Amino acid sequence: MGQAGTARCQACDHEFQLWRGGGFQSQIVFCEDCGKGESLPHFGKPLREDADESGGVGQCRRCSGRLNLNASARCPRCRSPRLEIGEMDLMWD
Fold first, then answer.
1. Residue 61 burial by CB count (10 A; 0-12/13-18/19+): exposed, middle or buried?
2. What is the spatial distance between Cα 9 and Cα 7, in angstroms, rounded to a whole number?
């Protein structure tokens, strides 16, 4: 199930909107370089089947980095992975 809510960076105290997870037709996958998430359609087929050996599933439209199933969200301001996840108040399937 996909979720959206707020996150706060523990390194720079920046608060931002965070989307994560996925639903029946798409999944949020994060970029290894910039840490931003991108929604990739999968239409019921697991993205793991299309991934390379390290989990790569495409190219980030924002920074041209690599989208990876194993990457996690990062702060958009300082790119730190140290996030405090707030309440997730929106969910979708």
1. exposed
2. 7
- Phi/psi of residue 56, nearest 5 degrees: -70, 135
| pLDDT of the residue at 23 | 76
User: Residue ranges of the domains in the chain?
Assistant: 2-85
Please give the structure tokens belonging to residue 64.
């041209």
Closest CA to 38 of 58, 55, 23, 52: 58
- Phi, psi angles (nearest 5°) of residue 51: -80, 155
pTM of the full predicted structure?
Answer: 0.81
C-alpha triplet 71, 72, 77: angle, nearest 5°? 120
